[in-house]
Structure formats: C-alpha cells, structure tokens
Amino acid sequence: MTAPTRRSILGTLAALPLVPASSAMAQLAAPPAGGIASMPGHANPRQAPFYAAGDGEADDTNAIQAAINAVRFKPRNKRSGPRSGGVFIPSGIYRITKTILIGDTLGLWFAGASTGGTLFLWDGPPGQPMFLLRDVRDAVLTDFQIKSTPRKPLHTGIRTENARGGYYAPSQNLFQNLLINGTDAPGLRYGFRVAQGTSGDANNDFHEFIRCKVKNYAKAAFTVEHSQSHTNRFYSCSFNGYRRGEAGVRTRHGSFSWFGGGGGNTVADFDLGAADPCFALVPDAKHRANRNFGFPQRMAQRRNYSTCRG
Questions:
Q1: What pLDDT digit, counting tens, does each position of 69-114 carry?
Q2: What is the distance between the alpha carbons of residues 108 and 173, in angstroms, rounded to a whole number?
Q3: How distant, in Å, are the alpha carbons of 41, 101, 162, 236 from that of 131?
Q4: Which one of 5, 122, 222, 266 is at 20 to 30 Å from 178 when CA atoms are compared?
Q5: Where are the domains of the chain?
C-alpha cells in the first residue's frame, strides 16, 4: 500500500461538500432547548423527564424536587453514604408551592444561571422554608434568586439543619451569589437559618456564604441558632431590612465571621443572643463609616472587632 501524496490529499478535500460558514456557526452557537441537556449524574429540570415550565405560572415544585432526587445515588461501596451530582436550572421564573427538600447527601451542585436569570417564586403556605437542607454536606447552592411577596409570605428562604438517622452531619456547605428578597411589606421572616433539627444540639457548622444578599425581611437575614454551629463564614454578604427588619445577623450560640456590610434594622445589625458568642466583624469600607452599623456601636469605630479567644 502506497502512502498518500500531498496531491491525493488535496484532491480528496476538494471533493468534500462545502458547508456555508454562517450555517456552521449557527449550529455551534445554538444552545439546546431549555439550556444544558441532562446527562448521567446531572439534571436539567426544564427537560425530560421533569418538564419544568419556568414561566411563573405553572407549578414547578415537583419538577425541581424530582431533578434533585434523580441525581442522588448510592455508591457501590456500602460503607459510603449517598452522594449527588448536579442540577442546573436555566433562566426562568419557577413557581414553588411547598418546601423543596435536599436530604442526607454529599456534594450536590445546585446552580441557576444568575441571580437575575433564575428566580424561584414562593406561592406556598406561610410557616415553611423554600429550601430545606437536612443532613447535607459539601453542597453548593449558587446563582439564583428566591422571591416572596406579602400576598404569599415566606418563613425562611434557605434552612440547613440536622436530623436523626442521617448519614452526614450538615457541614461545609457553600452558598454563593444568592439573593433572597421579601419584597416590600415585607413578605419574608428569615433569609438563611443555620438551625437545630430533630437530632438536637448536634453539628451544623463550617458553612460559607459568599456574595449572598437578603432584603425586606421581618426578623433576621441570617441566623446561627445553636452551640454546635461553629465557624460559619460570610464574605462580601449584605442585608437590608429597610427599617422594618429586626436584625441582619442573629445568634443564639455558635460562632461566625463577617466580612461585608448591611443596615436597615430596628433592633441591631448584629443581635448577639448568646452570653459569650465568638464572632469577628470586618465591615467593608462603606459601612465602616456608618455609625448605625453593628452592635454595640463601637464596632463602627474600628476596622474590625472580635470576641474570639485564642
């Protein structure tokens, strides 16, 4: 067999059918319907078999919940706990009518398009959180907005808690680029709650919040609620109660570090309920000049403030 010559290669290429450049570029640029396609270990709730509408009218609760359930799996190693892949939610308005549960799993990635693109609109009963993370570890929730209204008030945007019988202790979850907005009157009691669950005062700690914002709340934007909730870290986060919210960050026990800003609360920007909590505050440049930022007010006079020992 003789090796192909340069002339034979050029002749073969010349015989191939030509595709217009504009057609080829259109095929490359065209995204799949509904955004990213579902694949093993990952799900897009806008596509089969979930079919979320994302139009703000249809009830998308079951589709979102089914997508979360679909990416949860049990490893072959029987000693390992359940794990999760990723759920990717394209831009749209997703009407939610009951709590969405993320339960007993490791490593879920739950991502929207952006805080302006992917919006979850609460249309359920009062007294419930929109997202409940129960015994969840190393999860990432990023790039979406939660919105509620006075007509359909929401108790809590996102709550993480422990529970009896779970494989994991809730820990090291990352909340990033999230907006929780109660709208006007307000239609929201709490933004994020790190709360005690049915297993009592057990571990629920080392969570990170990056560029998270809570607006128009009645009680508190962020809470740390029990003694086994340590080393929660807030980076470039903010809150604004618009003179109706009670507190930006409220603690009962536990510890946290805050690097950011906020205001607009009737009780205090930082309402420290524990007798001797451990916390560190580093206000941003804008809020270091605000004498109403922090409690007590001497926090506003210092570059940072800490009660943690050691």
A1: 999 988 777 678 899 999 999 999 999 999 999 999 999 999 999 9
A2: 9
A3: 21, 6, 14, 22
A4: 266
A5: 43-277
Strand partners, 33: none
Across 195-294, the runs of DSSP E, i.e. the strands, are 208-215, 220-224, 232-251, 255-272, 278-283
- C-alpha 271/C-alpha 247 separation (Å) is 6
Q: How far, in Å, are 16, 68, 108, 126, 220 from residue 233 at the CA level? A: 59, 26, 20, 29, 17
Return d(Cα 132, Cα 200) in angstroms, integer: 17
Q: What is the DSSP letter of 302?
A: S
Map tokens 């409690």 to a residue. 295
CA separation for the pair 24, 175 (Å, rounded): 39
Q: To which residue do tokens 């007798």 refer? A: 275
* Model pTM above 0.85: no
- Kindly state the DSSP code that residue 3 receives in the 8-state scheme: P
Answer left, alpha or beta for residue 89, where phi above 0 means left and psi between -120 and 50 means alpha. Answer: beta
DSSP state of 99: P
Query: Tokens 């403030």 map to which residue?
Result: 305
Q: Which CATH class is domain 43-277?
A: mainly beta
Provide the 3-class DSSP secondary structure of residue 288: helix
